[in-house]
Write a sequence for this structure.
């Protein structure tokens, strides 16, 4: 048992840090650190920078252009990116559709799609959930009917994150109504520019636009965009669900957030003294730090065990539950730390005069919104209730 | 001992509820929240007509002589409707200050105008960097003989962008954290040197940062005793806290109804999700938390009028802390049980949740008031 | 709305208090205040004292010898008894079997059993649960077969509190296997001295003996001991379950316990200062006090509403859940307040010399045991999970 | 970075587990708990034979040179078996004090005797009224030239009733709460003036109140530096805390197994109660809490040997606080899910629960250590 990083791993960390130091655009880092919204351009710029370094899809097998890193290296990379304020790499392309294409796609799909993911040329989004198929994904109804060399797709997808930025969408569609629900689902890749696709924004609780409805009205999709076999899509979907793993616990991000929380507690004042001296608030920080210390180890335990058996397990659900709870605690504490300055909706409304008198103004603006928005992390990607069901069934055999 | 409302109280609540159901639907409210004022002057006039703006004032000033329980009833319904109109600042905060501390002529001039819906007011008390401490006042009012010059800044003044007059606290004596030496002044919004920067708050209402640069007011602007305003401010804020607790209970009740309805209608895996026991139990916990919060809010409303300052402090802080805890868990659970629908702007659930969260940050959060309550145990 | 007690209610309180002051034996009060175990004699002595005053069964209707008090008076009585350290009146006789006999028993049963309950002559215990029928009470199997003028009872009851003290047991027994489980249950009153009854002690987590198994081996029970009609017992059982109400929230007891907790926090020391000055511990006391303040009002709301509609509602489940949680918090805090002095199993082992040096000794002895034992209050009488099911079904319609 | 145990470690754990499964069944353990000693000298001899009592000592004193991770492995299994034998006091507490601070001749005399199972020892440090403060020492040791006279009282000395020798802390200088001025002495149980009053603890093991009335010991009884023992005591207690965390993890793991088994076999309403979602989710939370606690316990075991005193304080307090929280929720949930069977003496569940609860009260409870960890944030 050894919880220290090897000298090689430490050197690796130094190399990563130094690369980020010299290459991460300051405007992007500042947005990330302040919790502001990132635009498409911010994500893409950073992806292209990583790509130039050969780090565009570090978690991929080498044969597809990945870095061939160990789980520990991937974790270090994630931690350094988070600490420096690099944008989170969006999972839809590199971590979701790509592994499916690698495992089940044909050669020509692999050659066509993978390079454009790693280079940042193609932005992917996910077409899984539907208004009536959320936790119960297999009840999905979006229909794809074969007509010659095309599928004709009709239906509606919901909760499509960054669908308004996307070049491609990977979809679960119903190609058969026979047998079990799961047995009639196929996995289709659809060009977002195809006629008949409508993207409608859904405004979030914090007023931001991340998610969308995507409507399909007689959308013609070439059959070569079918991944694997028709009606086997559920298998691929389950494979995918088990995949987005190295950062499902979001330890790196939460460590960076904890650091910001502590800074905030030193800068804000309560009763004429720094807020950190308020024992009740300090204890709350301590509590979330304990949770995070433990999760960091739990995360490594799962990742290293996975690395051995090379098959993602339901333990990821533990990471998802704890990771999301911690993220939510952190955003909540940052908001609470502001006191009554958590009320203003937009500090742009405060002019420089007010800012001078309020220590809060510069970093306070997005914090309440972040708290509200962050309620989603225990809901999306399988709510924490669904995660508990998975653990109960898959690990405990209940 | 009884928990019954009088017929008048029930009638008032019923009238108000019907008015809101009809004239203050969620889509109408959304439009108002995005308007310049952030509320409707027309609705305000109608609230005046219903007598709501006169509720807590003595009859000789055109009021209805209502007590804190009456205000509780009203606030519950306003909470349920997510009403944006500046009732708290004008009627509860400023209104009770004037009622309790005003001179005859101040009451004559201001209370009927508030009751009639012609005058919007608020209290500007907290300052940047003070968090929730009530005696931490740096704004000064210097006497020049027969007037005062006010200098300083006040932060997150509720309804401050629309208030016609602002009651502002300032030091006429004492040091920055002394209990003595604080006075109140009534200042018109157009007073030279008064800069008001309004903004929307997270819950869609309005507040303002206010800056006082040599704002001059006459002696007659003094509200209450010179140097001795802190107890009056504390009492007014305690009334406002009791009102906020009732508003929160109204919101929690509405959230529970919405969530229960969602559990019964939303289907997944071939059945209403309310058939799943884990969700049932969470819903039950929401109901228990709400009923317990209702009890505590009721206790504080009944007691706040009648008890001495120390006991008032204890009960009001108990209510703010406890209702805040309940509101947090109910709000978070309502969002979670709604799944994705809980975090979109489209449904009222997210708006209820945001308002509950902002109530917690108003006049002291849960930990602040738990701390007050806890520290009182030292004297037990 | 008026949360004050009327002048009459206040006078009533004074009268109750003064009666208790002059009549409650000091040795009993001291045991109750210290959380020590009470013996049968302690309960019976106090019951006989109450009976002499006409308060032996205050919650009964006047026609059966009750006091005819209002819900508020009953609450005041309970609060004063708790504050003074009077023994909790055990529910089995006066609050459980008696209401059933009043409502469904015949005249001769009423005349035979009720006076001996109120006088303290008969000690009753409850024969409901069985090893295989706990939460699922209706699956009970103890069998009563009619043979002439007798029922022959065979089977086993579990969790029989104070069964070893009891003169009588009221039992749910199976008299039919036809139809729904619930439709074959009858309500029998059985003399514990009848041949064939064996009582076996079950030792509790704290080492105490409160509960028992009761075995029935061809026990002959006269048919006149059947309450109401054969096979209608489930109706009576449900009626009974809704009854034990005026103190299900245990507000009076918890208020007395809170007071003791505060005394403890003033007497114990942490870091050279009274424990109450430790903000973390003080905050925990504050938190439970908040819960209790709210529950006191919730309790009155339910009781007064019940008083009006004269039918107990499922709201009692709310009182049970909150009341038990508060009781558990209080016993836990008292134990935690002792610090390492919560470890010794029995302070009888410490002689006077050690006691002199430890402020703890006199009142510390039972506190850990009370915490352990008190885990039962969220289990018995329908676990808190069952209570949540009741609320979900009966109040929320889920 | 890796979480793998060596083959030796796995073999040791396996041997111990098999020994306990066979020779330390729950009914045997019950008999021991009710015996005079409260444990079995025979089992103790067998633990010595297995090498357990020599584990953390250097090889030159008959030890195995094991580290804190080795101790963790052992303690997990001892926890699982609810082993009553005084391993913590003798091997972990007293053993590490002697190993780290003893003179050559003290080590020569004591360590092989401990390792061989011939000598039971413990540390007597905390005093009545000190709660969990480590520097709060009133017991005095007055030098008389070439001996010391010890006076004072020590409370809840673990295994104190059976220990052959007791390491006792006493003031040779400084005031009641000074960090400096504390020294350690090794005292035989038969020393005149030493009164030991043993008693069972809530979890079935044994402890004692000890009274020192002019107990005289020679200069050679001094263990470690005069006046400078506090850092050594802190380190030994930190080792003990790490061991207790591992024991707690072992118990939680066993409780989870027992509870899961109960959920699968206990039937109500015609099905195993583990089919009920609310119970499933509670079981899941127990598992998550246990895995998180295991992570924290592991972290502390790996770090306690290698890091400086300040960082050790931080990690060890983090572990004690966090494992304590997990143990509380897992223990309470295990009892609740067992229903009535959880609160009877007959099943091991209640015994596991009691032991977890008592671990929390040993060497500082959850709030105590959270407080230490929290206060360190001030320096961040």
């Amino acid at each position: 048992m050894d919880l220290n990083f090897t000298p090689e791993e430490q050197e690796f960390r130094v190399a990563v840090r130094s690369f980020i130091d010299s290459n991460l655009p300051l405007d992007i880092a500042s947005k990330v650190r302040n919790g502001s919204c990132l635009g498409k351009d911010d994500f893409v710029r950073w992806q292209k920078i990583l790509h130039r370094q050969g780090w565009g899809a570090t978690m991929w097998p080498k044969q597809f252009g990945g870095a061939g890193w160990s789980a520990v290296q991937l974790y270090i990379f994630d931690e350094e990116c988070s600490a420096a304020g690099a944008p989170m790499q969006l999972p839809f392309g590199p971590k979701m559709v790509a592994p499916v294409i690698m495992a089940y796609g044909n050669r020509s799909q692999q050659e066509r799609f993978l390079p454009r993911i790693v280079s940042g040329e193609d932005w992917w989004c996910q077409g899984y959930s539907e208004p009536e198929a959320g936790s119960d994904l297999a009840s999905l109804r979006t229909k794809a009917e074969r007509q010659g060399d095309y599928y004709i797709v009709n239906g509606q997808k919901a909760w499509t994150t960054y669908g308004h930025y996307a070049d491609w969408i990977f979809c679960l569609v119903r190609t058969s109504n026979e047998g079990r629900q799961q047995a009639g689902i196929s996995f289709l890749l659809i060009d977002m520019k195809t006629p008949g696709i409508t993207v409608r924004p859904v405004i979030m609780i914090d007023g931001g636009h991340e998610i969308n409805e995507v409507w399909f009205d007689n959308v013609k999709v070439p059959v070569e965009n079918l991944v694997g076999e028709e009606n086997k899509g559920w298998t691929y979907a389950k494979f995918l669900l088990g995949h987005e793993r190295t950062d499902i616990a979001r330890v790196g991000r939460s460590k960076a957030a904890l650091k910001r929380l502590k800074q905030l507690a030193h800068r804000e004042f309560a009763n004429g003294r720094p807020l950190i001296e308020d024992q009740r608030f300090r204890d709350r920080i301590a509590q979330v730090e304990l949770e995070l210390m433990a999760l960091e180890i739990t995360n490594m335990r799962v990742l290293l065990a996975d690395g051995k058996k090379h098959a993602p397990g339901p333990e990821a659900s533990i990471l998802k539950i704890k990771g999301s709870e911690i993220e939510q605690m952190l955003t909540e504490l940052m908001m609470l730390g502001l006191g009554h300055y958590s009320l203003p909706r937009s500090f742009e409304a405060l002019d420089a005069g007010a800012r001078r008198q309020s220590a809060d103004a510069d970093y306070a603006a997005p914090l309440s919104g972040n708290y509200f928005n962050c309620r989603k992390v225990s809901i999306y990607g399988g709510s924490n209730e669904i995660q508990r069901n998975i653990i109960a069934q898959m690990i405990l055999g209940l | 001992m009884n928990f019954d409302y009088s017929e008048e109280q029930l009638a008032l609540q019923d009238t108000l509820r019907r008015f809101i159901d009809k004239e203050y639907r969620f889509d109408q409210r959304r439009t108002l929240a995005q308007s310049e004022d952030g509320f409707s002057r027309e609705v305000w006039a109608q609230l005046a007509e219903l007598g709501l703006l006169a509720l807590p004032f003595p009859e000789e000033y055109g009021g209805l002589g209502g007590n804190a329980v009456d205000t509780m009833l009203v606030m519950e319904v306003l909470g349920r409707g997510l009403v944006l109109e500046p009732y708290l600042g004008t009627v509860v905060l400023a209104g009770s200050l004037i009622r309790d501390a005003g001179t005859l002529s101040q009451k004559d001039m201001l209370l009927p105008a508030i009751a009639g819906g012609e005058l919007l007011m608020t209290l500007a008390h907290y300052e940047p960097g003070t968090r929730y401490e009530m005696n931490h006042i740096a704004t000064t009012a210097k006497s020049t003989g027969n007037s005062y010059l006010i200098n300083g800044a006040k932060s997150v003044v509720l309804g401050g962008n629309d208030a016609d007059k602002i009651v502002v606290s300032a030091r006429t004596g004492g040091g920055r954290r002394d209990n003595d030496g604080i006075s109140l002044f009534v200042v018109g919004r157009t007073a030279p040197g008064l800069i008001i920067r309004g903004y929307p708050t997270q819950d869609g209402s309005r507040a303002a940062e206010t800056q006082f640069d040599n704002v001059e007011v006459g002696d007659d602007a003094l509200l209450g005793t010179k140097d001795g305003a802190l107890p009056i401010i504390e009492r007014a804020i305690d009334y406002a806290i009791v009102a906020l607790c009732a508003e929160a209970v109204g919101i929690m009740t509405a959230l529970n109804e919405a969530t229960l309805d969602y559990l019964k209608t939303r289907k997944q895996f071939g059945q209403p999700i309310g058939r799943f026991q884990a969700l049932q139990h969470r819903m039950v916990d929401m109901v228990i938390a709400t009923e317990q919060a209702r009890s505590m809010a009721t206790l504080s409303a009944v007691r706040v009028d009648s008890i001495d300052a120390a006991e008032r402090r204890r009960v009001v802080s108990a209510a703010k802390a406890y209702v805040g805890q309940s509101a947090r868990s109910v709000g978070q659970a309502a969002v979670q049980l709604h799944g994705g629908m809980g975090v979109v702007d489209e449904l009222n659930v997210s708006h209820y949740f945001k308002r509950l969260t902002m109530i917690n940050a108003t006049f002291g959060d849960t930990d602040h008031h738990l701390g007050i309550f806890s520290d009182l145990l030292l004297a037990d």
